[in-house]
Structure formats: C-alpha cells, structure tokens
C-alpha cells in the first residue's frame, strides 16, 4: 500500500522556469491538499480538492495552479518560478475534510528557485 | 496572526526522560485537535486526534491532553527514545473554515540525546 507518493523529491529551478509537482494517492480519498512548509513556519495550504474536477484556493495560492482530473492524481503547477517559492511542498489526502478522518502526507518535494 | 501557537520552539532531552509540549489555539469554533510527528525529511504522521469531548488520548508512549475551555493541549512523551527526535506539530481544525480546515502550528523540535 503506497499511500501518498510525490515526485520529484528534489528540484532546482531557475527564476522564470515552470514545473509540475506530481502527487498520487491509492487510498481512494476524496480530499487532496497541497501545502508548503517554510523554515520555522506551520504548513500553509496552497490548494485543495474535494473530488475529481473540483479544486479551490487555500491560504497562499498565488503563483500556483492545480487540476484534479482523477481521484488519484493532484498535480501542482508552478508558473514563472520565483525565489519566494523555495520551500518544501507536501501533498496530503483524507477521506473527508472534516471530522476525525486521518490526513495522510506524502514524503515532500524540496524545491529551490535560484 | 497564527491561530495555533506551540511552545517551546525546541528542546533537548536525555534519552529515557519525559517531556511535555504545549499547544495553545484561538481557532473557534473547534472541531478537533491533532498531534503529528514529523521526522527530518519526511511528511507529518498522525499521533493522536481528539474531539472537544475528549480530555486525553494515548498512542504508546505519547499522551495528548486537551482542555477545550482554555483552548490548550499538551503532548507528553514518556521514557523518550532516540527515535523520538523529530518535530511535533499541533493542528486544529474548525468546521466553518472553507480552506482553513486545518490550522498548523509551527512545531516543536525535539532532540533526544544519548
């Protein structure tokens, strides 16, 4: 049982480049989330999805885009990378978004923009 | 202002000793409170989930307490082991938030030394 997988693990981008962070879950979860984690700060929600075809902005969506064409996949797109997007990105999933449902996290993608 | 504050920011303890981590929150209304363990370079993993009606919950050597009246929670680690070295994150969820379903604290970094 793989859970939540993310690729790549590490990436270095130049300013202005674009890339897609991949996230896949095999638990048939409805909810999926993208967070970023900066040093000394709590995780911040970028985007979330409550099911295939439905996405919504989180707390810090600027500079990012998402899509959810299937239940399993929730890619995060960075357009025109900026140094402020240097961070560790975590994808997570849960069966529902409320109640005591567990939220499962992927291993993270460490992104550096120079 | 962060609605979930954790203390201390970091602590060092000797193997075999106990320690207690604190979490104060202002999130209201309150749905549940979670404690996560995040090993270096990994995604957070759930330790406990408590609703407002629960005062205490244990997971092995980890015991979480919750006082919903004072909006405080603590995580007690008993007989610490080297593998307990990690960041411990308090997460509070509210049923009314659209995107802020989970408000993350910045974490307490615990280092267990031999």
Which H/E pattern describes the elements of chain A? EEEEEEEEEEE
Shape of chain B: globular
The total strand number of chain A stands at 11
Structural class of chain B: mainly beta
Biggest interface and which pair forms it?
A-B, 26 and 27 residues
- Report the C-alpha radius of gyration of chain B, rounded: 14 Å
Features:
heterodimer, A: 114 residues, mainly beta, seven-stranded mixed beta sheet, four-stranded antiparallel beta sheet, 11 strands, B: 114 residues, six-stranded mixed beta sheet, five-stranded antiparallel beta sheet
Q: If you had to describe this structure to a student in words, what would you say it looks like?
A:
The complex is a heterodimer of chains A (114) and B (114). The mean pLDDT of chain A is 92. By secondary structure, chain A is mainly beta. Chain A is globular, with a radius of gyration of 13 Å. Chain A contains no helices and 11 strands. Chain B has no helices and 11 strands. Chain B has strands spanning 4-7, 10-14, 19-25, 32-38, 45-51, 56-59, 62-67, 72-77, 86-93, 102-104, 108-113. In chain B, the strands form 2 sheets. In chain B, strands 2, 4, 5, 9, 10 and 11 form a 6-stranded mixed beta sheet that branches. In chain B, strands 1-3-8-7-6 form a 5-stranded antiparallel beta sheet, with no helix packed on it. Chain A binds chain B through residues 4, 35, 40-45, 48, 56-59, 90, 92, 97-100, 102-108, and chain B through 2, 4, 9, 31-32, 34, 41-46, 49, 51, 89, 93, 95, 98-107.
Task: Describe what is shown at a glance.
The complex is a heterodimer of chains A (114) and B (114). In chain A, 0% of the residues lie in helices and 49% in strands. Chain A is mainly β and 114 residues long.
Provide the fold topology.
The complex is a heterodimer of chains A (114) and B (114).
Chain A: E1 4-7, E2 10-13, E3 19-25, E4 31-37, E5 44-51, E6 54-57, E7 64-66, E8 76-78, E9 87-94, E10 103-105, E11 109-113
Parallel strand pairs in A: 2-11
Antiparallel strand pairs in A: 1-3, 3-8, 4-5, 4-9, 5-6, 7-8, 9-10, 9-11
Chain B: E1 4-7, E2 10-14, E3 19-25, E4 32-38, E5 45-51, E6 56-59, E7 62-67, E8 72-77, E9 86-93, E10 102-104, E11 108-113
